Amino acid sequence: MFATSVITGKPVPGVNRIVAAAESPLTGTYGESEAGGFSAPELKYSGFDVVVVEEVSEKPVYLWIKDGRAEIRDATHLWG
To answer: In 3D, which of 50, 49, 46, 19 has the Cα closest to residue 35?
Structure first.
């Protein structure tokens, strides 16, 4: 899961953070990390506050998010 804050993108120092959180399928252990930079405001401005990733792909794919739309796209041309 990737999540932003309610106030992400506002002109307030320190609020443009994104959280990446996951639960291990092997142990059930929860872990999270935070990052600054442009990824949180860009996600927010694209129309999403949270992105939840489930399941596994049989081939390489990437998530394309733009203007309120999200697509899973083939990434085999990037593999290797």
So the answer is: 19
pTM of the model: 0.78
**pLDDT by position in tens, the chain (length 80):** 999 988 998 888 888 899 999 999 899 999 999 998 889 999 999 999 999 999 889 999 999 998 889 999 999 999 88
Residue 24 neighbours by CB distance under 10 Å: 9
Name 22's Cβ contacts closer than 8 Å, sequence gap at least 6: 1, 30, 31, 32
Number of structural domains found in the chain: 1
Host domain of residue 55: 2-78
